[in-house]
């Protein structure tokens, strides 16, 4: 049985200007689940994550967070309700220190020592390098920092846009291991990825986005074994 949804999209359409990008997206993320949306370059994955925060605007359909409609809510209100995003390309502040980057992620004045402690336990490198400029971190460490920064707001649902992009396999494994721990501690995860193999291994359930439409959905393992998915996203073997 699926857990009760904490994030739900009902027949959502999104356009960039006049160009339709997402069509009739129906998707559910259950409380405590890891759900992934996989899709090729340009399928509309980042657009979908950004639309959850109200930009670009949803032209049809509804988005619900824990049963409450957030479709046309202001971005800061949505964030306050418990949604946080790790954006594509990390977007850390390279000239600021590691610690300053983390503190930037804390909602309002909620610079809660416990959350920082939890992030430092999850990614010890962020403690070791606390006073160092963030731009000097490796790509994988910057990804850890971006995840840590998003966790500072104590989100109920964490959204991640291609966290594995450009990282070596060992680093991807470490980051995905940390994502598993984050979920075990009670956060729900929705991640979009081109790296279908890793994402479907981690996820409870997955959706396949092709040209702005959901083509398939299923258990992570079932999608991994699906010949169509294997052919299109896993190099056909
Ligand atoms: N700001 C924008 N204005 C107009 N069109 C855009 C904008 N951003 C994205 N698009 C278009 O929307 C479509 C979906 O783009 P999107 O970035 O959501 O894809 P993606 O699945 O995240 O791709 P990638 O895997 O390369 O990150 C593409 O055709 C893209 O060219
Ligand atoms: Mg993208």
3D structure, described in words:
The chain is α/β, with parallel strands linked by helices and 237 residues long. The protein folds into two domains: 1-82 and 157-168 and 184-237, Rossmann fold (3-Layer(aba) Sandwich), CATH 3.40.50.300; 90-154, no CATH class. The chain is 36% helix and 29% strand. It starts with a strand and ends with a helix. The mean pLDDT is 92.
Topology of this protein?
Blueprint (H helix, E strand, L loop, with lengths): L4 E12 L2 E12 L3 E6 L5 H8 L5 E8 L2 E2 L5 H6 L2 E4 L11 H7 L8 H10 L1 H5 L10 H13 L5 E5 L7 H16 L3 E6 L2 H7 L2 E6 L2 E7 H6 L1 H7 L4
Helix pairs in contact: 3-6
This protein binds adenosine-5'-triphosphate and magnesium ion (MG).
The site of magnesium ion (MG) has 4 residues, from helix 1.
Short structural summary:
The chain is an alpha/beta fold and 237 residues long. It is 36% helix and 29% strand. It binds adenosine-5'-triphosphate and magnesium ion.
The total count of strands amounts to: 10
> What's the alpha carbon Rg, rounded to whole Å?
17 Å
Summarize the amount of helix as a percent range. Answer: 25-40%
- As a percent range, the share of strand residues is 25-35%
What's the architecture of the largest domain in CATH terms? 3-Layer(aba) Sandwich
CATH fold node name of the largest domain:
Rossmann fold
Task: Label the structural class.
Answer: alpha/beta
- What series of H and E elements makes up the topology? EEEHEEHEHHHHEHEHEEHH
Distance between the termini: 31 Å
Mean pLDDT over all positions: 92
Taken from the alpha-carbon principal axes, the silhouette is globular
So what's the CATH class of the largest domain?
A: Alpha Beta
